[in-house]
Amino acid sequence: MSSFRLYVIGLVKQGSAEHMLSVFAEYRAARAISRAAISQNDFNILSGCVRNLKSFVEAGAPEFNQSELKDLGKKLFEILLTGSTRDLLLLATGEQRSGRALLPLEIIAEDPEVASWPWEYLYDANTKKFISQEFHPISRGVFTYHTSLPCEPIDGPIRLLLILGVPPDDLHTTPQEEVHRIRQIFSTQLDTNAFEIDIVNASYEPSEISTKLTSGRPYHIVHYFGHAQFDYENSQGYLAIQKQSGGLFKLDANASQIYSPTVEFASQC
Length: 269
What we know:
This protein is of the alpha/beta class and 269 residues long. The chain folds into 2 domains: 4-142, no CATH class; 158-265, no CATH class. It is built from 8 helices and 14 strands. A 5-stranded mixed β-sheet has the order 3-2-1-4-7. Strands 11-12-13-14 form a 4-stranded antiparallel β-sheet. The radius of gyration is 20 Å and the shape is globular.
């Protein structure tokens, strides 16, 4: 699968009058570069918006509406994709659309703070769309010396477990679109006999996750679609599975939670 890589070079330093970020874009053999100068005032506004969004996602406050999300996404888009980098994206998007394949965006930043910005909400003011919902799945990371472990060849079909942590009729997410997109990605690149996708709707019964994971048939990929929050008291994040019957099921790093689905929360994501 072809991807569109964006390398964000530069550090944001407290007290600087201006922050300069260079963006190097790469698609197949094509290259492009652009630079974004962010004033301290604009940086403070952007950082404030990012903090408010994270607080809203984790705790439901302060209020963060669709208009504010679009404004934040537009600011992020203008940092990352402007001039020649945007031109290259348009070219790559056109090529991939002709083959009916999605074009993932890989964002790799030098500064961990920049990497933590919510790039998943990139918003294109020209098309009036969040690009990750339209055509571009997004992943991100930082520059690191650590390399991934070598992957052993897979004997037989690739097995993926897709865990849906929200009900099918959730008003704020699109679980069925996620299922469709994942099937589309795999079917575009592989023969139908070369992969298997099992779907667990954890909103009905969270313990079904453990049933699948201990079934004796190993999964090569486990993909979760749903909400997550952060437990400040215990200093750890957790999956916040929204149960069909109401309330939340908290699944944290302690695997025993999977086997004892008794912890529920009345609060909403």
